[in-house]
Amino acid sequence: MSIRSRNRKRSLLFVATLATLVLAACSSGDGGSGASASTAADACTPADTPVITLAAYSNPYDAYGKLTSSSGSFSLDWKDAHDQSLIFQMSFGGSSTQAENIVNGFPADVYASSTATDVELVQDAGLITHDWKSDPDGSIVATSVVGFMVRPGNPKNIHTWSDLTQPGLQILTPDPAQSGGARWNIVAAYGAAMRGQVDGYAKDSSTDAEKLLEGIFSNVTVLDKSANDSFKNFESGNGDVAITYENQALAGIAGGSEDEFVIPPSTVLIQTPTVVVDKNAEAHCNTDVVDAFVKYLHSPDAQEIFQTVGYQRPIDIADAKKGDGDQYPAIGDLFTTDDLGGWDTLVGDKVFGPDGVFTQAQAAVS
Fold it and tell me: Which of 24, 97, 99, 209 has the fewest CB atoms lying closer than 10 Å?
């Protein structure tokens, strides 16, 4: 069995175990640990102490820890208004893995995804029934950018995407089959090339974009299952550079890492949606509190937590681009997936489809 297969088996086993525990809590009749389903097929009994189950991609662990704290403003405000304490149960992992877990039965009331396409997987399974793209900010709760974590002093002189193709370089990036972060990394390189922002690669040339991705992925030594695992692998001493989220890098530096973060002149704005999983929330009789929590994530209070605890950028694209002049530097060419035709086009045709540039590049280096 391959390393990837073993990791996936362990991940699914963990989620299945956690799902069993959560379902047991939600079906208990003591009124203190979860929503109790009624014997009627279309009715249920709300819990005295609501349980909210959150499934999230790997990076925003610290931010959601603060946002869901019993001493946080949301929990305190809800208790004041409804005389109810809240219980949050959370699972973190690769974005696509989390989407698959929800589709396969993990009872998440809230899904914090890395990409819109992973949300659509859950929607296509019939579990998200509302128009989440019409929710506030298009359901985007935070942003970041793709860049490079390098060793102290940047000994490999890595500043832009073409520097990642130098012979002998060892690169870490997560597995795009499991991680939304991996797909953001690929889209960032592809977009920079297509926009004519990478020296030696022609603007609007799919051939050159494929060439760039082939050069980068010929140097990739490890494909971890999540962005968080990839970053931890790099921080443990493996590789010369990790392609990663800015917020992940800044959290690592704040935690004592001596490695450095480099933002290329052209990169993508990572826009991460968080949505209510309607069918699960309805089954758990906690739709009111779940809706309120997701709306809270767009509030000034929650946004401050995303930016100060989670090291993420503002939702507004212009604000994200200009940064703050200090911790978040301005970026010369910051683009979005919409500038490249949107996620549906990127996944279905241009980049990740059967004839997409990444698919062809990956085949060339396999």
Answer: 24
